[in-house]
């Protein structure tokens, strides 16, 4: 029966993948599953699998239509005043910003974000323990898909959870407690306790706070990214943060305690069964937690009704319920690791400890490379160390620190020191040589690796050893293909209101960035909670470069000193090896921007002006000066048969200086200056360049009104079609030799001169 339950749930997974945006991958999985069912010649299982798949597919289509009908325009903002019911634990605060998911009376879920206006509002949101009704006014619009290639797609993530619209609050907050009704009392009870648990964990010191929030209420501390950096690089997060391992351990402790207290098995098993749904809410409802809870619930329920359920059947039921709760389950890295590794533990044949660890590593590797593009050679060693330490040290220390720490601060500090030392050790281990930036393999290659790994693990030992060699060889070949591409590209990242451009030559011979993006840092009020420094480049240019297997940049041109062009430089220097920075002459002496270099590896800084040799031709500035808009670099290069001009934020006065040289100038592609502001892109300059396409880098709904209608009118008058990152997202020219093709990540507007 165990294999039949498995093959019945696989068609549901295939349908979910097909309708969730990966039609061909889901089709392959469905075909293989149905073929296997037919081969089993168990026709009732075949019919049952088809009926469930068709029913589940119909429900998904109906659900998608409802969400589509609710979805607002992505490009237009709709003023709205809405009334929302908000669970106390759904409010998340970062600095003066907050976001939450609220429920409207018609059942729609809405993602809400805004800015706190006073310390009173902060205190109110920090101490919520009961459901509240919010009446807020704001600007509503549909959720924007990921604007850059391989960037985390928040719109898809929230759509899987039934959320397609967002509201940016523009007015004051009006909220009041509401009483629980018959529909909500159970959930309100557990959400209230989760809110209290989060508040308790927030008061803990250092690493203890990070671990307590992650393990118990399933929340993420502000310091988590820094504290768990080594664990992330070693690929260990899945062991307990998302795998549900801590759930199994806690349930084991409860069962052991009940047995040794001589409690009636019937009563404590029914008690655990009734407790599990509430505990799933209390623990945050993550994919690993839900899987572990449902698997345990199925086994306990079967036992109490006189049946026996094996691990595979419990796993299959958990996957089916998980897909119903979150149809995009299999698109998320955490879910892939949680369900995949737990299935491996169930199905793997008896193996030695070494082979078992290697098998789990090989099973997780395709998902890790597809999700985070890298793998550390010391991961196997780290797994061997951490897995035994987790139930013996990490979980007990976290439990003691969380329960006793608020009463005895010294114990909390000691527990935080133990966990901090553990994290420091992992960070030191992760810093050792062995990290392999692999790049992102194609989906079908990752699937082939996964299928090949499963097949190998079912073979006899001798065949397994020979097969692993071929599997490793395939990884080496794909690594070479990713790292030595035959094509080059010129890519304009969507970094909001800023600039960042990648030029990558074939075989990655030379990698260049022109500006790195960034945002203006506004001073925070003294009452705002501290928040970690975040750089947008981590999710845009750096993430994209790592997906290509690139860990270095030969040249970084910083066109001038404005924050929206150079603000993310620390992230670039920390995550990538940079050979040299090229800046407009005079900027190298300005102390203001050099603070961005503090703590970064030493890098060569080369000032530029017209006549100086560089990888790109320099058209401005003509002499050293202040690196403001008027002193911005203007650069030109030829790639894939096209002549590209990159104007930074150069104004019309600088354009006239270029024209005054009398040199012949021509552009096939013009990145217009200053985000399309009317202070740049003079008609005479455009007329002289005669570009075939213009690119505008500007943020959506930016407060400057970029691009200006005057600039767009100039482009229309000169019959120059244009693309804008605010409407088209990442804009990419991929070339081979002297020919190439254009693509955009978003298609909110096609290139047009009208």
From TrEMBL:
GO molecular function: hydrolase activity
Compartments where found: Cell membrane
Signal peptide: none
CDD domains: ComA-like_MBL-fold
Sequence ranges assigned to domain Metallo-beta-lactamase in this UniProt record: 497-700
Statement: the UniProt record of this protein carries the keyword Membrane: yes
GO cellular component, one term: plasma membrane
Membrane-spanning parts: 7-30, 42-61, 236-258, 270-294, 375-399, 442-458, 470-486
Membrane topology classification: Multi-pass membrane protein
Listed GO biological process terms: establishment of competence for transformation
Alphabetic keyword roster: Cell membrane, Hydrolase, Membrane, Transmembrane, Transmembrane helix
Origin superkingdom: Bacteria
Family annotation (NCBIfam families): ComEC_N-term, ComEC_Rec2
PANTHER family: BETA-LACTAMASE DOMAIN PROTEIN, DNA INTERNALIZATION/COMPETENCE PROTEIN COMEC/REC2
Protein name: Metallo-beta-lactamase superfamily hydrolase
